[in-house]
Design brief:
The protein has one helix and no strands. By secondary structure, it is mainly alpha-helical. The termini are far apart. Keywords: Membrane, Transmembrane, Transmembrane helix.
Amino acid sequence: MSPGQIAALVAAGAFVLLVLLLAIPLLKLGKTLDEATIAIRKAHENTDPLFTEANQTLTHVNTQLERVDGITANARAVTGNVSALTSLFTATLGGPLVKAAALSYGVSKAVRARRKAAESPNKHTRRRPRGGKR
């Protein structure tokens, strides 16, 4: 054997050893990819019921939102009716009620002033304005 043939045999042996050393991680990587594929398949199979239930939940929520929208519209209509009724009440009875309240206040003040004047006959019954001329 010549030195070139020996070098070729050593190189071939090193190459076989390298292939064997690299084969182990490649086999492990293949198993890992198989397990990942199985996990992805299972996850895909389990998501169908989840999506179905989520869709049913969203449908139920939309139904409830439509009901709330109807209630809100009715509340808006009631608010408008109450506002109109308040305006009508203020327009028809507000002015006369204010006048009646002012009249009752004036009458009660006058009655108090007369009673006070009747209790103290020596004092002047009329008050003079402040800072005014005599």
